[in-house]
Amino acid sequence: MATLISRTSDLTWPPDEMLDPDGFDVSYDRLSDELLVYFSGRDFPAASFPVSDDADHIYLLGDVETGRVVGLHVEGFLAYAVKRLPPLIDLLDIADLRGITPAEVAEVRRGLMVGDRRRATLAALLTVVDAEVAASTAATPMPAPV
Asked: Is the pTM of this model over 0.85?
């Protein structure tokens, strides 16, 4: 039996060729207020691992068998994340939406005053996650997955 990954610190970041924002699979569910970003499909079991205690709304999606980061999971997307980083609202333009209409997204966007910049928005999300991971792994051991 293979050893399953159980800690954020056991995860490995994917190679750069897997991080092409044009190939990301993005979905948003209004009921749970969660955004999921998969780097290259969803054909594997993945678990959410906290990025850090300070970024308690951002998780790495890790393949529990290989230990590779396969995506990102953002909780409280509209309630918290887009208020912290308004360009993230643009991800809803490319996301599969559940429980929210494009008109409702437009209403939220009007309140945030952001532009339509897909690649810059995904790059911003990756930058935030990278900084949180770097700060967290330097300071404390990583918590167990949720």
From this structure: no
